[in-house]
Amino acid sequence: MKKNIAILGSTGSIGTQALEVIEANPEIFSVAVLTAQDNADLLIEQAAKFLPKEVVIGNEKHFDKVKSALSSFNIKVYSGIEALVSVVESEEIDTVLTAMVGYAGLLPTIHAIKAGKDIALANKETLVVAGELITALAKQYGVKIYPVDSEHSAIFQCLVGEEENKIEKIILTASGGPFRGKDRAFLANVTKAQALKHPNWSMGAKITIDSATLMNKGLEVIEAKWLFDLEASQIDVIVHPQSIVHSLVQFEDGSIKAQMGLPDMKLPIQYALRYPARLKSTFPRFSFMDYPSLTFEKPDMDTFRNLSIAYEVLEKGGNAACIVNAANEIAVEAFLQDKIGFLDISDLIIESLAKMSYISAPTYDDYVQTNEATRRFASELIQVKV
Ligand code: NAD
Ligand code: MG
């Protein structure tokens, strides 16, 4: 029996690498659903090759194009957010890979869980915004959430066989991004072109900027809390510029386990899709001789304030992380449009956090409203700044 996969965000960095994994293992996986927001041409190409049952193009402007290009295939074509949330419920899907970017992942993930689908989770924003809700739902519906994020996959891999043993703490590694070691004076003038040059990983634009500000590591701290049921004090971050040690777990006897390898997202993707099995791969192998020194240093949380903001909202709970996520999404978009500077990103998040109302036990509707209100507020702040 092949495993039938739905890929939400199939045209992105994670989505295309997931299709490479599926293509390399045709006897193990098949594609049930593909979705994308704007890249109609690539979605059409992917659908013609992998022959999913259903395809969703988020932006309705491209519907006619996708529909007519795929008319000779037995593929149903839909458009819009309603289609996106109902397509994940489709009977033949075994696992939904959430590889879309941002808050938009929340609703389809909720629908997939309620339909009993296992989740291969790349879309970390969903757990940042509503980790409490999502993990409770997964428990209620007996659904597994398999991490795709490389750090969380590393921890997940270290925990195999350790079901009886408590985690003392985890150590998330961070590359430090393109601006590691720089001070605020330098950061005040960096351009988006500089920020988009990640030293070790090639990823979508939003997560690449998040890596440069260390917001990505902050989001991952929150993601780890929910995936592994940890307190903030049990989650450490250490900068490791070579990105070879993908993260570590320390147990109560003091023993530390690490997962290592050359940086390649296809490994965590295939582990999440085929857990507990490890699929044979031809990925380049790591050699210690090529890396005679692996180095580690403390993150600079005074300069890269987004990481300390993440710890702060993790302690605070409620809708605080939802506020941070929404403000960050607006700020990153504005930075990518040259509307604000690099350091304004943290300022915007801090101002939003101070201004928006705190809700200690939010419902789904509270998250929706918090997200919308924060986006509005942050967008207005940007209007004032430009
Ligand atoms: P990307 O920008 O390359 O791709 C995003 C995909 O989502 C595209 O297919 C796009 O069409 C779709 N999309 C965009 N907006 C959407 C919307 N509003 N509704 C539905 N679909 C939408 O992003 P990426 O780098 O592949 O990252 C995807 C997710 O995976 C993010 O949450 C990111 O944090 C996480 N992640 C990525 C990497 C990586 O190496 N790229 C690593 C770890 C985690
Ligand atoms: Mg990561």
TrEMBL record:
Reaction catalysis annotation: 2-C-methyl-D-erythritol 4-phosphate + NADP(+) = 1-deoxy-D-xylulose 5-phosphate + NADPH + H(+)
Pathway: Isoprenoid biosynthesis; isopentenyl diphosphate biosynthesis via DXP pathway; isopentenyl diphosphate from 1-deoxy-D-xylulose 5-phosphate: step 1/6
Domain 1-deoxy-D-xylulose 5-phosphate reductoisomerase C-terminal: 145-228
Keywords: Isoprene biosynthesis, Magnesium, Manganese, Metal-binding, NADP, Oxidoreductase
Binding site for NADPH: T11, G12, S13, I14, N39, N123, E125, G204
Gene3D superfamilies: 1.10.1740.10, NAD(P)-binding Rossmann-like Domain
Binding-site list for 1-deoxy-D-xylulose 5-phosphate: K124, S150, E151, S175, H198, S211, N216, K217, E220
Superkingdom assignment: Bacteria
Segments forming domain DXP reductoisomerase C-terminal: 260-376
Residues that, per the record, bind Mn(2+): D149, E151, E220
GO BP annotations listed: isopentenyl diphosphate biosynthetic process, methylerythritol 4-phosphate pathway involved in terpenoid biosynthetic process
1-deoxy-D-xylulose 5-phosphate reductoisomerase N-terminal domain segment(s): 5-131
Keyword Manganese: yes
Family designation: Belongs to the DXR family.
Protein purpose: Catalyzes the NADPH-dependent rearrangement and reduction of 1-deoxy-D-xylulose-5-phosphate (DXP) to 2-C-methyl-D-erythritol 4-phosphate (MEP).
Stated name of the protein: 1-deoxy-D-xylulose 5-phosphate reductoisomerase
Organism: Dyadobacter chenhuakuii
Lineage, broadest ranks: Bacteria, Pseudomonadati, Bacteroidota, Cytophagia, Cytophagales
Gene: dxr
